[in-house]
């Protein structure tokens, strides 16, 4: 289970921001949210089942997902895919002379089999500058290893498997990854947690859909995947795989030699729909090709079905960028509801997603600590904050207030009106209104520390 994720000096995030899945000490309306949307992996820890991240276009929401995706990928691949001289594919905040040559920082806190791990690293294009791993089985945290450049200090009592791996770790690779590669049992378990976590960092599903279809080429579609799509898309009766048979062709080259070429063997997903007569009676079925004939929304459901079901089966985090893309708001609400229900999510998988769907703010789906905002300043710096940091009532109209700009993180359309010929005087009036909203926001928002948050 994810406890918190922090990033600093990466893409649009100049200063450190933290997405926390810790449940705040608050009472919700309706009160059922406090039992359905919160779970306890340990007696001393309460976590949230889901988090929705809002913000204007280009505010940095996708950069937050990209940061988590980079961390996951680097942990899984740094020790086996990089050569000694290969630069790290990292993008620091580029709009400041302070940060453009500084390392980027990533840290994650998570629970695995009752142990709380805190792992992180600082990395530049050239090398890993720092790296650390701490663990807590009780209230006290102990270090497993600490790294500063090429100097690695290993706790030989709690992380003996890392002893001797220091010399085998390249400057541009992570020590945790190297230890797992050298059959470190504890390191391998940690990498297994990252491997199971899914980070879907994009809405262009075409390549993903084709990959999924071809991956099922030697299998059958899982029954729960078929049932998931069928229940959420009322037009589909059934789904199955259709494999094109392999064919061998004899081809003759320029020298007259005969060679055998194999073609075909591709796989496609067929969907079945009921066919009706003029009186509305079912007279048969019609076959559709998923990628050629079904809607973008149905194809999006198919793409999301597998990671959603995998997360629910394993009880791991699932991170989706723009989850509501091409989906009806009712479907998005239904997916969130699956994760927020102990009945459909008994292993406490966590759903974290970015969205523009404000309907979710008015449907009694979330507690205040589950609603997050990303806002970008005029200098291009993204900040991340939660609704719990506002003095907002538990029964407030969150959707209406967000659209009105009371929580920030919305588009500023003044310049657009100027482009299409709005008079300067009206433009100034609009700017004054915006400044007034910003002033109200600063007066009601309390950002300095989590301990200062309103606990209403």
Description:
It is a single chain. With 456 residues, this protein is α+β, with helices and mostly antiparallel strands. It is built from 12 helices and 20 strands. The strands form 5 sheets. A 7-stranded antiparallel beta sheet has the order 2-1-6-7-8-9-10, covered by helices on one side. Helix 2 packs across helix 3, helix 3 crosses helix 4 and helix 6 packs across helix 8. The longest helix is centred in the N-terminal third of the chain and has 21 residues. The radius of gyration is 25 Å and the shape is globular. The chain starts with a strand and ends in a 12-residue tail after the last helix.
Q: What features would you highlight for this structure?
A:
7-stranded antiparallel β-sheet, 6-stranded mixed β-sheet, 20 strands
Overall geometry: globular
Number of helices: 12
Distance between the termini: 26 Å
Proportion of strand residues: 25-35%
Oligomerization state: single chain
Radius of gyration equals 25 Å
**Helix/strand class:** alpha+beta
Care to count the β-strands? 20
Low-confidence stretches: 446-456
Mean pLDDT: 87
Biggest beta sheet summary? 7 strands, antiparallel
Strand order of the largest sheet: 2-1-6-7-8-9-10
Helix content class: 25-40%
